[in-house]
Design brief:
The protein is built from five helices and no strands. It is mainly α. The chain has a single domain (2-109), classed as Cytochrome Bc1 Complex, Chain D, domain 2 (Orthogonal Bundle). Bound molecules: heme C. The site of heme C (HEC) has 16 residues, from α2, α3, α4 and α5. Heme C binds next to α2, α3, α4 and α5. It comes from Thioalkalivibrio nitratireducens (strain DSM 14787 / UNIQEM 213 / ALEN2).
């Protein structure tokens, strides 16, 4: 029985290592964000980048993304926009991490032009 395990074990280890080897293969477009031209979400017209899902879920509820993707602001002004909607348009409060992510996304992808 012992000698069989000697053959069996390396075979199992080899099989287990396969997903790791395969996972290491670089994919053509990384995590969906190609360098250079930004990838545009066909549904919203928004740039697909870090924070996209969060901004889509929180910022396309009352108005479409067109309300903000045609604009470019500094982080400070994006925050002022959010505060204005929170103060007078019924926008809910965000926890600090969510607000950071939203501002990072807006500042990075829709800066002043
Ligand atoms: C609770 C509803 C609501 C949500 C959610 C919401 N907004 Fe608004 N927003 C409004 C209303 C109402 C207006 C004014 C009417 C309009 O322009 O459609 C507005 C207007 C704006 C404007 C234009 C302001 C101006 O100067 O005319 C921007 C930019 C904007 N929103 C960005 C955002 C962003 C970014 C988010 C996500 C953080 C967001 N909105 C989420 C209600 C909302």
């Amino acid at each position: 029985m012992k000698w069989q395990a000697c053959l069996f074990l390396p075979a199992v280890l080899w099989l287990l290592s396969m997903p790791l080897v395969l996972a290491d293969e670089p994919t053509a477009d990384g995590d969906g964000v190609a360098a250079g031209e930004p990838e545009i979400d066909p549904e919203t017209g928004m740039i697909r980048a870090r924070g996209f899902e969060t901004v889509k879920n929180n910022c396309t509820v009352c108005h479409s993304s067109r309300t903000f993707i045609n604009r470019g602001y500094t982080r400070k002004v994006w925050l002022e926009q959010i505060r204005w909607m929170q103060d007078s348009q019924g926008l809910w409060e965000f926890d600090p991490e969510t607000e950071e992510l939203i501002l990072d996304y807006l500042e990075t992808n829709y800066p002043p032009r």
